[in-house]
Amino acid sequence: MKRFIIILTFFVIFLNSGNVFGANYATKDYKVITQDKFTICATLSYPKAKEITDFPTVVLLHSIGYNSEWWGDLPNDLLERGYAVLTIDLRGHGKSVYNAKLVRTSWSSLTNKAYAKYPDDVITVINYVKKENKRTFFNNWAIVGADIGASTAVLAANKIEYKPQTIVMLSPVVNTKGLYIPVKLAELDNIDILSITGKSDYFGKKADKYLKKFAQSTYAEFASSSATTGMIMIKHDEILSKVICAWIDEYIKK
Description:
CATH topology: Rossmann fold
Number of strands: 10
Strand content: 15-25%
Shape: globular
Number of helices: 9
Order of helices and strands: HEEEHEHHEHEEEHEHEHH
Number of domains: 1
CATH architecture: 3-Layer(aba) Sandwich
Radius of gyration: 17 Å
Structural class: alpha/beta
Distance between the termini: 22 Å
């Protein structure tokens, strides 16, 4: 809870923070093949700084029905603060739509059995990026997820060997598409959570009340002024991206 108070005190400072690296970023696109031969697409961006070999990293997992292009200012704000950013199009979304037979597959036609593969998809991409780069990206890292992306973040964090320092959830969900997170959240005993809900997000606030009972570490709540939900809140609430950055700054050493 101490860290939550800190961001409320200091996030205003970041509203006018300058661009540390300018637009000088490197970008790598990845197509990672999962165990069942589905193609998951992701993009890694990071500041072009030769003296840095170990980048603090933030993974962004989008809302259901959207893709990685809908994150608003958040990726740029993170890059400006010196983070590497890995955006992943979840199975059936954005560019991640081709199955083993190269047939386009939309999220709307996926079964719960397919959604259950989301955490493993994310871990597969992270492990691939970690292995394929000379620079190091996941010694210090965090996850930001929105609705189904938030559920995926909790389940992936529970399962992956090297744990994130913190998780930010926008419009959390207790159980979506079969991704039930309370029990796995209870197992993340050293990972603090920041949950963000919009002012009209009844279901997100209800999920907060329930999930907070399972959290073994800090479960902080932030109320956005946006009337929308999920990642779209960032587009409608001009301070929200800075609040997320400020929270992550408290957990990841750069």
